[in-house]
Design brief:
2 helices, Immunoglobulin-like, 11 strands, 7-stranded mixed beta sheet, 4-stranded antiparallel beta sheet
């Protein structure tokens, strides 16, 4: 497995970017289990609890809210500047993952994810012809007022988004 971890790339935004997408709200994520076309390429959202092997698209995002300090976050994503989704993601048990399959051509691509709490990450990746890529997207919020009880102070407080690019699915236990 080849994986590249992007360190915390957090940018405090003056305004929150709102992207057109598949809808809003956690309930909408579950309702999007059908192919949709967004910005010129097909996107399919697989609600939490589905099979890790169900998405057959060449690019699959595995999106999860990992923050008990921010139990529901709105994340908006773009691929090459085109909208993929704009949804609320609940932390639940921290292992609730929504899969987003994207049918995109081989080549160099850039994923941008923005949270309503001010975090933003941009990750470039290469999709070789005939291969697949999984982009694991985890949102975190470390509350500075709860350092000792919730996260121990190893990282900077506040919102962040981590992205890992892999050539195989990365199941969560």
């Amino acid at each position: 497995m080849t994986a590249h971890r992007v360190s915390l790339v957090v940018t405090a935004l003056c305004g929150v970017v709102v992207l057109a997408g598949c809808g809003s709200g956690t309930a909408d994520v579950a309702a999007q289990d059908s192919a949709t076309t967004t910005a010129g390429f097909p996107v399919r959202i697989f609600p939490p609890g589905g099979s890790w092997t169900e998405p057959e698209q060449p690019v699959v995002l595995q999106v999860s809210n990992q923050s008990f300090d921010d139990p529901e976050v709105r994340l908006s994503a773009r691929l090459d500047g085109l909208p993929l989704f704009d949804h609320d993601f609940a932390v639940e048990d921290q292992h609730t993952t929504t899969l987003v399959g994207v049918d995109v051509a081989p080549g160099r691509h850039t994923l941008t994810v923005v949270s309503d709490s001010g975090a933003e990450v941009e990750q470039a990746f290469e999709l070789p012809a005939g291969e697949r890529r999984w982009l694991v997207v985890h949102y975190w919020y470390l509350d500075p007022d709860r350092e000792e009880e919730s996260w121990g102070g190893e990282e900077d407080p506040g919102p962040s988004i981590h992205v890992v690019v892999s050539d195989e699915a990365v199941p969560m236990a």
